[in-house]
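Hi all, long-time lurker, first post. I run a small reading group and we've been trying to get comfortable going from sequence to structure in the token notation. Rather than ask abstract questions, I figured I'd post a concrete chain and ask someone more experienced to write out its structure so we can walk through it together at our next meeting. Sequence below, copied exactly:
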Amino acid sequence: MSVELRNVSCVYAPGTPYETRAVTELSLTIRDGEFAGVMGKTGCGKSTMIQLIAGLMRPSGGQILLDGQDINGKNFDRDGLRRRVGVVFQFPEIQLFETTVKRDVAFGLRHFGWTEEEKESSVREALERMGFSYEAVKDKSPLGFSGGEKRRLAVAGVLAARPELLILDEPLAGLDPLGREALLTLLGELNRDGTTILMVSHDADTLAEYADRIILLKDGRLFRDGPAAEVFADYDALKDNGIGVCRVREAAEALRRRGWEIPAGTVRYGQLLDEIAGRWRQ
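-- Answer (accepted) --
Happy to help. Here is the structure in token form:
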């Protein structure tokens, strides 16, 4: 599934003293099968952008196209949008409310027209992908689990719909190292299986390792867009604009300034280790 934004703008409280322009003439395309990371300082428009893509808000101007169709057009299938696009908000565990895990994970499927067998199969698959035993947890209250487990249950509720595009807003916030690693491994698997991933995060290290592409926003506008190696290579521009740079890039830059011939596009741990090892072999 591809998503295209054409000159999209979004203004909050227009015509009032509280008018705020969150996104301004934003144009970009999320290609089918991509793993794209979105970064920028707080207030740059990241959360607004993903809500616009998910159809949770309407733009003040411009178009958002899903496989070439305007999602805000008069005849667009909004139910189809909800089936195809899944959103994991920051701290999704606070949205758990049903009496059992099974009912909570299946809640979003109630209007899909699926049979009970199809719903159960999808719920089972989603829970197992998140590391749970379906039989062991299906009848338990979702509120009785630990914080990290609740996060995984909430994500399972989104995955149960088998979205083609998965949007995540700071999904790693508050997770312990094992929980982070498990979620990132799952996202990598989903992406390899064909799911398009759009992930908002302040964690430059994670996006450098996992994302094919980095989209940087500044003041509601597109600031940089391209492969992680190219975007993070512009070290001075990112630092000057208060945008995080991954630690590998920081280390590579420090070595470069000490005379080491480290390529500017070195942004992943494996790349840096190879460069250092290659130097010692010389």
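A couple of things your group might point at:
The chain has two domains: 3-245, 246-282.
Residues 246-282 form one domain.
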